[in-house]
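How a chain folds remains the central question behind the approach discussed here. For one protein, we set the task of working out the C-alpha cells from the amino acid sequence alone. The sequence in question and its C-alpha cells are set out directly beneath this paragraph.

_____
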Amino acid sequence: MSGETPQRQAGIPHDRLTGFLKSPETRALLAELYGPGNETFAVQEQRYSALADQFIRRFGAAAEGLRIFSAPGRSEIGGNHTDHNHGKVLAASIQLDCIAVAAKTNDNRIHLYDESYGEDYSIDLGGDLSPVPGETGSAALVRGIAAGFKEPSLTGGAPFNLGGFSACVESRVLPGSGLSSSAAFEMLIGGILNVMYNGGKLPVEKLAAMGQYGENKYWGKGSGLLDQMASGAGGVAGIDFENPSAPVLERIPFDVGSGRYALVLVNTGGSHANLSGEYSAIPNEMKGVAAFFGREVLRGITVTDLLRQLPALRARCGDRAVLRALHFVGENQRVDDEITALKENDFPRFLSLIQESGDSSYKFLQNVVVPHGDSREQNIPLCLAVTEAFFRERRLTTGVRRAACRVHGGGFAGVIQAFLPQDEAEAYTAWMHSALGYTGSGPSPVFVMSIRPVGVVEITRS
C-alpha cells in the first residue's frame, strides 16, 4: 500500500449484522436507497443477509467485521450521446443497485466473488497491473480500476492508496439494458478502495475517471464519463463535460415522485451485448464532422456552422454523420432547458423537452434500430409506438402534456423510458405486459423507478 493516509476502522461482526440492518438508522438509509415500506425493508434485509452469509462461506469471518457498500444504476434523462463530444447531460441514479459485502485483507490482493455472474477471481495489487491478454469480464475492470489508482494522469501525480479486500458482489441492475450495470460495478469497486484505503476523501469525479479508465483501457469499451458520474453522484444531476478532465457536476433538487409522476423503464427485449461497433460509430462520426472544422469534438460548433457547410460536410462525412452532429447541437441546448424547467417546477415544459429529445434521437441520432441487423426486429420503435398509443388512449398528451417517452441510454436495443402520472403507472404496466406477451412468469419487463438521492455509499459507515 502506498501513502500514509490513516485508515478509518469500521465493520460489523457477522453475528450482529441482523440487528444492524434492523436498526432505525440503517432503515432510514435503506428508505433513501430503495423507498419506504416494510416489504421493501424485508427484501433488502434478506438480500444483504444472504450476501453476508455467502461471504462467510467463501472467506470466513473477518477480523475487523463486515462492511456493506452499494452503487446505483442510472437513468439518462437528457443529453443522449453527448458526453463523448464534451457535451452536457442530465441523469438520475435509480434504486436498482450493485452491492458488496467486503472486508479488508493484509495480502494486497482483491478477492472477488460475483454472485450474479458466477465469477470468482483474485487480483494481485503488488505486481504489474497492466492489461492481461485474454482477461475479460469484471476481472479486467477491477484490474483497470486498481491501475487507475496509480495512474499519474488520473491521480494528479502521487498515487492513491491501494490495499487488499475480499468481497461478495450481487447486482440488481439489469445487464445489457442501458441502466449502466458496468458503471455501477465500477463505482462499487472504486468506492470500496476509496473508503477502506483513502478515508473516503476521493471525489466522485476521480472515482468516475478510474471507472472510465478501466472500461476504456482494460475492457475495450469507448465509454464517456456519464454513466460513472451519474452512479457516483446520486439524485438528479446535470453534468457538463466541456472539460472532461474536470466535469462540472450540478445536483438538481428534484424528485419525480414528489411531482406525482412516475419514471417507468421498459425492457424491450433487446440487449446491448455485441453492439460495440454501433456505439463507437456515433462518437466517431460526430468527431469526423468536428474534424471538418479543425476541431477534435463538436462542442462549440453551432447549427449555423453546420448548415453553412452542408454540401461539403455531406460529401466528406456522409448524411448520417451530419444528422448526428445536428442532434448533438440541439441536445446540448435541451439539457440546459430541461434543467431550467425542473428548477422552475414546470413539468409540462420538461416533458415536452423529453419528447423532443427522444424524437431527435430517433430521427437524427438514429439509435433505435441496429442498422445492419434483422429488419424484422425493431423492439424499441415498436415499444415507443405502443407507449404513444397508450398516451393517446388515456389523453395524456391532449392539451397540457402529461406524459413523454423516449429511447433510453445507448439505444439500438434494451430499454425505453416513459414519464407519466403516478396514477397511470399501473394501467401502463398492464398495457405493456399485454403488448409484450408477459404472462407473469419471470421478471416483469416494466420497472417503475424511484430516483435515489444517494450515489455510491457505504451502508456500514460510522
